[in-house]
Amino acid sequence: MKGLLAGLLLLSAVANASVQKDFLRACEERVEQYSAQRVNAENRTQQSAARAVASINAADPSAGQALSTALGDTRQLSTLYGRYEMLSQLQQFMQKKPTPAATDAWMQSRVEELRTKIATADAAESGIRQSTPGKDIGLLAWVGAVERLAQDRGKIEGAAAELRLIERDLQSYHAARAEEHARAVQVRSAILIGIVAALAYQQETTHDIGVGAFSPNVHLCPDGSYVGGSGCVMTPEGNYVGGTPMLTPNGDFVGGTPQMAPNGRYIGGSGKPVRCPDGSYVAGACHMTPKGNYVGE
Fold this sequence. Notes:
Elements lengths: L1 H56 L5 H32 L5 H30 L9 H66 L1 H9 L4 E2 L5 E2 L4 E3 L5 E3 L2 E3 L5 E3 L2 E3 L5 E3 L4 E3 L5 E3 L3 E2 L5 E2 L2
Antiparallel strand pairs: 1-2, 3-4, 5-6, 7-8, 9-10, 11-12
């Protein structure tokens, strides 16, 4: 029985951890994927940015195209950053094993953050479009503002795209957790059934590990008392004695033929009175009960 309960508890622990670990492992794999892609994107962005700066400084006719390419690479790199940052936030959040309600609140907060960032980027773009490089703003300052806008737009785009994947993943996650919970309930029910069965088994064997360990002449009666002799027999007064109830001269009942012990008390049984280690007397021989007192044969 002990082995069964231990096995069921182990199954319960494994079930509780599986969905959470699988989800976090999938997130980590995606983080590693974005990190690997980011290395190439960073190299490409640095190269195109260097070409754009050189073209602008040389007043090359292709400067506009070079700048456009550099800004496109910057935006793609920032998209990866946006995905990476959003996924990192999710990993931290999922460590708490959130409920569906907490997940909905977290998702809504991320959506509101994106809306705020979009509004900020729109305002920055409006300001850039209203300015003229070399007139309202220096050329290098204008290029820097356009680059920051590309970075912001890219991060927003990446975060939004990742959030769509996250929403799908979280739906699957909570569906799996619901199934996991149902399995955990089944396992706990099996554990409880096992516990009840174990307790019932222990109750059935109480006589063997308790009474029987002391003496086969000791009998446990329905009222919890112990008697010796041939077994439990109820007296007219409702208590139990070991053998046929016989009335003593002082009005008590004993099991078997009454006889007076050396201490002046009546005991029942055919054996001669024997003094037990606790000072009491019984008929025949002393047999200790689980309660520590003695009964006779």
